[in-house]
Amino acid sequence: MSAGVQTVLMKKLSEFAYYLVSQKPYAVIIVIFAAFILSFGAFAHVETADDIESGITDPAVLKTFARFRAEFGHEQQILIAFPVAGIDRAALLDLWSLVHRLRALPQIQGIMSLLDVLKPFNRREDFEAYLLDFRIENLRELLRQNSMFDNFLVSSDGRALQVIVVPDMHYPDCQKQLYKELNRLLPGYFGTREYHVFGYMYFKERFFEFIERNNLVFITLGFILCTVLAWFFFPDVVVLGLILCSVSIPAVLTFAIYFANGNKINLFTSPIIPFALIISLSEIIYLVSFFVRTHKHGNRPYELLHRENFFRLLRPCLINSLTTLIGFLSLSYSPSPNIRLFSLYTSLACFLSYFVTFGLIFSALKLYQPKFSRSVQKDRRYGEGIRRFLRNTIFRHTGKVLAASVIIGLLALPFIFSAQTRNSLEDSFAADDQILTSWEFIKTRFSGPYQLLLMISHPDLLTRAFLEDVDRLHGKLLQKPEINRVFSLVSLLKAFTTSFSAGPEIPDSEQLIFSILEFFDARGIAEMVISPNADILLMRVAINESDDFAVYELGQRVLAVARSSLPANAKVEITGEVYSQAVLQRNILDNISGSFAAAIMMISLVFLLVFRSLSLSFIALLVNFYPIFFAYALAFLAGIPLNPSTAIAGCVMSGLIVDDTLHTITFYHDSNQHTTQRRLLFTMQQMTWPVIYSSILLGLGNAIFIFSDFKPFAYFGAIGALIVVIGVLGDLIVLPGCILAYDRMVKAKKPI
Prior knowledge:
Elements: H1 3-23, H2 25-38, H3 59-72, E1 78-83, H4 89-103, E2 108-112, H5 124-130, H6 133-145, E3 160-167, H7 174-190, E4 196-198, H8 200-233, H9 237-260, H10 272-289, H11 302-329, H12 337-367, H13 383-396, H14 398-417, H15 434-445, E5 450-457, H16 464-478, E6 483-487, H17 489-500, H18 510-521, E7 537-543, H19 548-565, E8 571-575, H20 577-611, H21 614-637, H22 644-656, H23 658-670, H24 676-703, H25 711-749
Helix pairs in contact: 1-2, 2-9, 2-12, 8-9, 8-10, 8-24, 9-10, 9-12, 10-12, 10-24, 11-12, 11-20, 11-22, 11-23, 13-24, 13-25, 14-21, 14-25, 16-19, 17-18, 19-20, 20-21, 20-22, 21-23, 21-25, 22-25, 23-24, 24-25
């Protein structure tokens, strides 16, 4: 299709669109509100996802994890730890009461505690009668001699006890229900006494609790912000109602489609609503600002102003919708299904925000003329002063502005390359949060709390020679500071021989090893370290590291040590939910980096197609992505780490901050002024306040996330707000300065 035919087609489509909003405004409004009302039916069943990630796509990781599940079942445990004065009668009675209450919960399949080495009792009075002084002393002696329980069920100093809860994963909605029951039972049982709870599934549910609360906070703050700013910018009751409707409808329609497709709210999709609100409001403020009657069009009829604004804004808004979609859709190839959902539905929210807003605003403003369009409005206080400052800065100090920008950019480069890749618990929760205090307590007094799982296969799995190799592997792994316990079949064998033989050793007889296994199997312990067919050993490596990237690197080192320490024909695989999650986070970060590069290339192509000028496209690209890199430099300088939650901000903002740049360059490109200086002056006169308005909205919209008590959201908001602040300076100062400097350079090269 030739360029001329495309132009004619676009003109006809534009005329048809204007015909709808100008001649059929009631029909457009009715259709939009009908869809809005009907969409509420999709909100009948709103659920929160019960898993942080279900999107592990690495084939090797999936295969190993599936094999582990088939042989050993799930690995879920919840740890309950609390300090005691010592291993005495009071502590054991307290432990019995706690375990007795926990056993009453239907979501619990099994419980391990220090009581397992004592005779079981169902009645407290029977247990009290059993706890004679000599039995308590025998228990202390057992703990001193046998290291199996050390840092596992009791701390090494005997001043803390730990209960290991094994959930019944077949119970309906086990994770959420057990989390609720524990949060009901434990505070009531311990009262003001210190206690700590941790476990991967407990930690995940804590995430979802943050999500649900943050959803409410963000939506409330977003709507209040919309209302206050809308009234501040345009004090007209009808326009205020129109703005609030235009803001709400895209968000509601987006989530109606989201829930209608069976999706649940999760960590990444929860910010879609505030994003939809802010994107809609930013676009509305931009559109409505052109209906403010100024001296430049004071005598122009309202009908003409309405038509001029429609055709003036249609093209840049279409381009904006395209670049915003690129920014979000660049994440659609992420290995995480939750990030893909965020990408898809935030893109949908952007699409609806632009097109619903455009249709509703121009239809409604065809029927109603706002107060600020009926007479010439006074310029806002300091308005002319701001424009004068910008003109003087750009035209008189062009070289200084550009030199300062280059110098600041060069100074920021070292901080970009010094980014710390980290995704630990400390990067998600506040320092005084219950999760972190529990992590620290259990980490310092017991083992773990996280663990890596090694599955080991060998033709002579239960021979003394091979098990001695496994024992030596124990010693090598325990030399690493991140590892505080290694538990395997060797641990059970040594514990048994310590109690019933001369000392901790591995038996010579394979038959005796099987007999010891049967002893522990009767107590439900053998299944923790060996498969039902006795063909796979499971080594549980407890680690005190929560950073996903450090966990991955540690896992690779552990795997390398295991393979080099065991015979060549031994098969060693690493797995576990913690390790699989670490692999996923690493893959997500790599994918986001690629998505950001793809977004840059696609947006560059859009610039070239729209402006058909390599110089303008390069300047636009520079002005848009300079703020992103500089904002990350400031973030890294402030100690914010690089991880999927912070990296995603660059992709998202690359599609949002480009809006004002495109609007500005489009006005510059399409103006009929004869010289570059006049075109810049005309563009600055028309665009200064719309750019400032929309940037304020976008910046405050990101700043909302800073109030989150969930650090990934707060980091996202801080980086996003920084990008907007730096971006508006780029649009108002650096962009005109670059255009002016390039024009002067071209003129200087021309022969006189």
